[in-house]
Amino acid sequence: MTAASGTSAAAGKLILVVDDDEAFRTSTASIVRSAGYQVCTAPDYRLALEILERGDPVDLLLLDIVMPDRVNGFALARMSRLRRPELKVIYISGFDIPGGVGDEALGPIIRKPLDNDQLLDEIARILAG
Fold this sequence. Notes:
This protein is 42% helix and 19% strand.
């Protein structure tokens, strides 16, 4: 599925992009928005949880795994699911995870640098499931 073919399915879906790298966060949000999704962003777990707690209708978390403040993407996903058990998750990482991910991942992991089509295909797949 490309951005053009996914636009109608994207209507009304809100994706929260969480990444501490501002340039990456902004460019990823732009890619997702170009496919017709609504997007909000957060630079860290604190703002991400605030967005969830204020009731924004987030359908999917797009999370960097490695973030500052000792709260990585895996931990943020678990904290988010305590608030919203139905929340879907996709992780993004430019790093190899020492020891692998084990049972920590609550969704697929996409490697940086992103392939735009792969990202949009994965978002559509997860939201459809």
